[in-house]
Amino acid sequence: MSDMQFEFATASRIIFGSSAIKKLNDDLVTFGERCLIVCGSSIERADPVVQILKQQRIGYTFHAIIGEPTIDSLQDGISVAHQKKYDFVIGIGGGSALDAGKAIAIMVRNEGDLLDYLEVVGKGKKLKKPGLPYIAIPTTAGTGTEVTRNAVISVPEMRVKVSLRSHLMLPTIAVVDPVLTYDLPPEITASTGLDALTQLIEPFVSTDDNPLIDVICQDGIRRIARSIRFVYSDHYNQEKARQDMSLASLYGGIALANAKLGAVHGFAGPLGGMYSAPHGMLCASLLPYVMEKNIQLLQNNFNYVESLNRFKTIAKLLTGNEFASPNDGVDWLVETNKFLNIKTLSQLGVNNEEIPEIIQKAKKSSSMKGNPIQLGDDDLMGILLKAL
User: Fold this and answer.
1) Record: fold of 186-387
2) Dist CA 257 CA 234 (whole Å)
3) What is 13-181's CATH topology?
4) Domain spans of the chain?
5) CA-CA distance, 102 to 131, in Å (whole number)?
6) pLDDT exceeds 90 at position 209
7) Model confidence band, residue 234 (pLDDT cutoffs 50, 70, 90)
């Protein structure tokens, strides 16, 4: 690139490390006296935050998100936040809880209905005002939501997921504390970990990468490759591996906020709206076969030598073998999926008869535009049939 230009944005402040959450002690009082805690169904996971709020004599209320955030559940939270006049919002939990907190924090300060600002199903208006100060604290290592500029919202009646999106939605503080992930069940460790891996691989080979993203993606891929089997097999006694996974997840969030994704997310978005399957599990089941198809098409086109070399780099990072070919990376993913008991699409409830509808929806996905090479209908069909 002779004329190198790119933009880079992330949370105003990132605090990373074991017991990082304790570093919030002196910060919270600067935000005010009343806090809304947005969490998942297990309110007790917010205990570390509650202890700090009590020490600082800050009032708080919970807003629990059961499953994925929907327009109705978010509207309830926004209404409560308006009435109680909170000074700031803390989101703690998995990606759904963090997305919900992000949406509530921004909507409190912007006029109109949530639907006015949503893509696809709404009017797609632009958010104009910064939201309440928002602190994002993940308890999983996968989505990287603590440093992204959008919130994914489920619209069950239309069988779609859509995004509320703005650079104004980047959290004020992201606190990434690997200790909070120690008690994750193996299945969630596996699916969220492979979600993080997907969010590192796709930006690295996308049509919109940049030098900063290249560096963090490669380091993140290496960390997941060496650690994911350990945290799955022995989730309590793997402090270094858990740190690897949390850091790689953070990297993945930064990467997708500053570059494009690809066909895995192009499929996973529509599939997540049509079936009640975990996003990470969908990504994991698709990733080997999207990679395989991309490599096959790139090998047949001399204009894509650089893109093919990136897949070779990924294979080296995954396998630890300096002489690995691009397809060695695919083999590593297939074997790892087996080791982690990743479900196939059919096991996740995907219906063979709905493949034509899935393909049509996937083609319209914004993520598909970042894929390193254009995929035709037959290519997309082939990926889905292999992933079934």
Assistant:
1) Dehydroquinate synthase-like, alpha domain (1.20.1090)
2) 31
3) Rossmann fold (3.40.50)
4) 13-181, 186-387
5) 9
6) no
7) confident
